[in-house]
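Q: Is it fine to ask for two folds in a single conversation?
A: Yes, each is treated on its own. Send the first.
Q: Here.
A: Result:
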Amino acid sequence: MCFAFARPGWEALYTKMAGHLPVMLREVLDLLAPQRGGHYLDGTFGGGGHSRAILEASPQVRLTALDRDPDAARRAGLFAEEFGYRFTFYHLEFSQLQTLTEHDYAGALFDLGVSSFQLDEAERGFSFGKSAPTDMRMDPTTGRSAAEFLETAPEADLVRAVRDLGEEQAWRRVCRAIVGARGTGKLARTDTLAELVADAVPAPRGKPSRIHPATRTFQGIRMAVNDELGVLERMLPAAFDRLAPGGVLAVITFHSLEDRPVKRFFNRLAGRPEHAGDSRPQDERVKRAELLTRRPLVAGEDELAANPRSRSAKLRAVRKLAAAELQPA
């Protein structure tokens, strides 16, 4: 994941990241302002790109990082050696924030979705570019794999994954194909699953699509296996509650199903209607935060050219108001 260098000296930061650059880093640092020091939270450590940039911003910065991926935990061990007491890592899903005793973060960041490391490692089963076990778990040591889900999920759960989370229009055909393939072994490998789905999805009319026909279904299955929307809904209030007054909560999303609950939660904090159908009277609203991004920030042209994966990224942020600033909306 890449960004356009915004300040002198960040080329050295690129070298330290060994080529792994986090999405919208310039914008994230502008919003969090870690150069002022303080205790920060990176709720999605991944490859550590955001964490490193925050720690490098000031020697007065401390950072706590979370990730449920065991591979991320191993990468975090190198950070502990390098940054010492300034860096703490917990092998936790970010919705488990309530288990931490830490509070009063100056800023918190969550970069949702699948990391570059997970996508690029075929054996994790997130991609269908190579044959691999159909796993897709963020933490492969817990829960059931995607293959197990596809073999055993009730019809309603399968429909939710393909139709609602994957937003696949041909969901009936895809679900029938999956159910029909149970017990054949075709669901156990990513390449055979992708072929099965592609055969079930009608070819688009007119100009062929550049998107593989199994892309949406793979997204929906991954989100269902990892309970990604449930985890997000639990994380948002827990993260905001742990901010210090004036602290910033920033979230990067990669599709509308992630962005929508973030947008609504932030609007609620800002005392604004959560959505077009929210008709609550103003006296029932309390402004607890200031919107720092009334519209989501998106990647710049330089970043898009260097890193196509950033194309769908949206960044939203709010600043928590101090007690003296709280007011009816």
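Q: Second one now.
A: Result:
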Amino acid sequence: MRIAVLANLKKNAPTWEGMTPDQWDDLDSPKTTHALVEALEFNGHEAAFFEANIQPPYNLIEKLQAYKPDLCFNIAESHFGNARESQIPALLEMLGIPYTGSQVLTLALALDKPMTKRVLLYHGLPTPEFQVFERPDDAIDEDLLDAAGELRFPMFVKPSREGTGMGVSASSIVRTVEQMRRQVAEHLKRYNQPILCERYIKGREVTIGLIGNLKPSAARRINERTAPNTLPDELTFFPPLEVNTTAYDDSEAGLYTNRMKVELAEEFHYFCPAPLDPDLLFRLNGLTAAVFRVLGCREVSRVDFRLDEEHDNEPYILEINPLPGLNPGYSDLCIEASAAGWTYEQLIGTMVELAAERYGLPVKA
């Protein structure tokens, strides 16, 4: 097949005076797009990279019409907008071009953490209590406060629609109303979007990646209000990855911070497979499948959890990433696939095969 790799490179992103240093931390590097092209060629495909931008000089629409791809391998994050990760898929659907990964609605929903949590709660899936702030002085929900008007438990403050741990640092953990309002005010000014405040779960941080597509019959077997009792055969669960927070300075506060994901990415400390009790791992895989199902994901995703150390490692879903990083050196999903014995070429080739099968395209190159 002829495959167009679509991504947004950090080096090509717009800049302006006063831009925050982490503005484009979730964008990709040429190392990643080069690796993807090589992996696709290894699998027998013709492949080329295109900057996922319709503006000159990139002119994505015209270049795709000239290249005439059979399939697009999409990892585009885009630049602006509340649903920016869905923009390129929407464009591809308008052009009638098949693409890998989750579709427009799923990508728009998953980028918005509060909306994702509302869907999880509707389906009875465990996620920490939360409130969304659009102003620093918004009234605080009564169930977050004790009799004295203070926070009942520590809260965690982060932007609603960012990735790569943007806005996550030791100061994200707040213990008083005053601290929370101050942190919300700072994030509102910096990120110009609603701010999510959720109950802070102290404990281990684990992420689980999967690959596959659910057939309608299998999807129906997953009880949408609980994790399934059996795992669907169509999904392959990679070994769990746990961030080794003890290997980092106390300044990171036991969190998987933006600094660790960006500045220290190539010095990443982790356990994979994470040392988990088999029953707990089964439950985490079941919850991962349930989140994948209720958000309508396709091909691949990664679900992030916190294990509550104060309540026997009870798992809480933090978020799902249906557009996970694919840098072969340090992206979580790639590390997990490697731990399962998969090569990078196998991971990328399988994603293409799954997408091709879903669209009814010839599976082989």
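Q: Anything structural to flag on that second result?
A: Two points. Residues 155 and 200 are 5 Å apart (CA to CA). The longest strand covers residues 203-212.
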